[in-house]
Design goal:
Blueprint lengths: L1 H17 L2 H11 L3 H4 L6 H12 L10 H11 L4 H15 L3 E13 L13 E14 L2 E13 L9 H16 L6 E6 L11 E5 H13 L5 H15 L16 H13 L1 H11 L3 H7 L1 H8 L4 H13 L1 H11 L4 H7 L10 E4 L14 H15 L5 H7 L2 H4 L1 H6 L5 E4 L11 E2 L11 E2 H4 L8 E3 L4 E5 L5 H13 L7 E4 L2
Parallel strand pairs: 3-4, 4-5
Antiparallel strand pairs: 1-2, 2-3, 6-12, 7-11, 8-9, 10-11
Helix pairs in contact: 1-14, 2-10, 5-6, 5-8, 8-9, 10-15, 11-14, 12-13
């Protein structure tokens, strides 16, 4: 009865949340389709660089001339090396905008460093954004001139290559030396957060949030054509749209003032429900550390299975909103939340697997995709106990089922397990890696189930095999399809628990 009562209370709170004006506004904001999510390039560094080239080019279709670039230069001036870059006499003018600006070299993407430093032999050294800006101004009535080659290295997921910014800065130094004393370099590392630091300490580090706050949002208030306004707003929406994948951490690059007001409002009005949903969907030590042990325990003890199922379903229906609200509220826990929210951390308890006698392979447990795959193989062997390792590999070919492993690491889903192969740390060194890592030994503990209850009995129990444990959604779906296609579902039953 208490669970029913608690569930009814949560139902009322869920109804209040879903019908709120702030929730509906944020839902509409995230549902608005942009070219970035249509093309699946929400976090593509190349696409972002191309957009910035359009924005900073003074002859672009936006018709704003040098106004966006001036805002960006002002932002650079406010950073660590701002006064040193522009010197005192030009710094004030950059801040005030009292100078004439012209692009001496057009904004380019993927600029080969060899074109500005002939000694470079690294064909991969390509600058994300390159331009040369000339400044004309007056000091005490006397005309002055100075030019700046500007390099913007754009990093979203990838980290800087070995001393990459140092090489770029040295190339700019050489470029300036060849041009004359009135040329000085500007290096910018554009990143998602303040934790990323350039190897070259002369590079200015600017975050996407700073870019949004001090450049993009002011530009969005300027007059431009409807189409260009749409393009700019699409980019701004893209920065705040939650993104993540199985192999990438969850990320929000920057959030607009509009989004911040909505997410803050939602959490303030429905704090308990958001915390309850977080515990229901991601139970474990990470969330316990985010909320605190006492709060976590209080929430965990406060609702039963019916409430948990409801919260999971509501979260699934508005995954991006729940993630965004929590991510923006717990600002000091973004690293933990980024890992927690990445694609592979969802759906951890969804399946049950039964053999031909409808005996549950792992009794009284709701299984993740990985454990469900292991259970499927065990159910297969329960029905066909004489199966050898080679026959098992043939029955479930890695090439047709698990693209993650076959394209990157292994040729097969199963390998022979021998305890004697373990080293002193319990690791099994494998030499049968395939494709991209062919010939490179790996450790089985990263990719295979090694616990006794997960090992597979083959050849009537004479030997044991180990199976891979990483299953992305598409790969797991292929496994289920393979079972149905080959008639294995006559003696293997997979039950989805949601």
């Amino acid at each position: 009865m208490n669970d029913i009562k608690d569930c009814n209370l949560i139902v009322d709170e869920v109804l209040s949340l879903l019908n709120s004006e702030a929730f509906q506004s944020l839902r509409s904001y995230y549902d608005d389709t942009t070219i970035f999510n249509v093309m699946g390039v929400e976090r593509s560094e190349n696409r972002h660089s191309s957009f910035l080239r359009w924005l900073f080019s003074t002859n672009s279709s936006h018709g704003l001339g040098d106004k966006p670039l001036r805002l960006f230069l002002r932002l650079i001036a406010t950073q660590k090396w701002g006064r040193q870059i522009f010197k005192e006499e030009l710094f004030d003018k950059v801040m005030a905008g009292t100078y004439h600006l012209e692009l001496l070299e057009s904004v380019e993407t993927e600029k080969y460093i060899g074109n500005i430093k002939n000694s470079s032999k690294n064909k991969k050294d390509r600058i994300d954004l390159w331009m040369v800006a000339g400044f004309s101004y007056e000091v005490d009535g006397e005309p002055q001139y100075h030019a700046f080659p500007i390099v913007i290295e754009n990093k979203i997921y990838a980290r800087e290559g070995v001393e990459q910014t140092k090489r770029y800065y040295n190339a700019m130094i050489d470029y300036c030396a060849a041009k004359g004393s009135d040329y000085s370099p500007i290096g910018v590392l554009l990143t998602p957060d303040t934790a990323t630091i350039a190897s070259c300490d002369q590079f200015t580090c600017i975050t996407y949030q700073q870019l949004l706050t001090y450049v993009l949002e002011p530009v969005a208030m300027m007059s431009m054509s409807p189409d260009d306004k749409t393009n700019l707003n699409a980019f701004i929406r893209n920065l705040g749209r939650p993104a993540g994948g199985a192999t990438r951490g969850f990320s929000i690059l920057a959030i607009s003032n509009y989004e911040r007001k909505l997410t803050n409002s939602l959490y303030e009005e429905h704090q308990q429900l958001f915390n309850q949903a977080l515990v229901a969907v991601y139970p474990g030590n990470i969330v316990k550390g985010i909320l605190g042990k006492d709060v976590y325990k209080l929430i965990d003890d406060s609702f039963g299975e019916d409430s948990s199922k409801l919260l999971n379903e509501v979260w699934n229906g508005s995954d991006d909103i729940f993630k965004s609200v929590i991510y923006q509220h717990f600002t000091d826990k973004k690293k933990e939340l980024g890992k927690l929210f990445k694609g592979s951390n969802r759906d951890t308890s969804k399946f049950k697997v039964y053999d031909a006698n409808h005996k549950e392979i792992f009794p009284n447990k709701r299984l993740s995709k990985s454990m469900a795959a292991c259970a499927i193989f065990k159910a297969y062997l329960t029905h066909r106990p004489t199966t050898t390792l080679e026959e098992l590999q043939s029955a479930f070919p890695c090439k047709e089922i698990n693209a993650y492993y076959f394209e990157n690491y292994y040729n097969d889903l199963f390998y022979k397990y021998e305890e004697s192969c373990c080293n002193e740390n319990g690791d099994i060194a494998l030499s049968f890696t395939a494709d991209k890592r062919k010939g490179v030994q790996s450790l089985a503990k990263w990719d295979f189930f090694l616990k006794d209850d997960c090992l597979l009995d083959i050849d009537n129990g004479k030997e044991k095999a180990m199976c891979v444990k990483w299953w992305r959604k598409d790969d797991f779906d292929r496994l289920v399809g393979h079972i149905e296609k080959n008639g294995f579902d006559k003696f293997i039953t997979i039950e989805e628990c949601l």
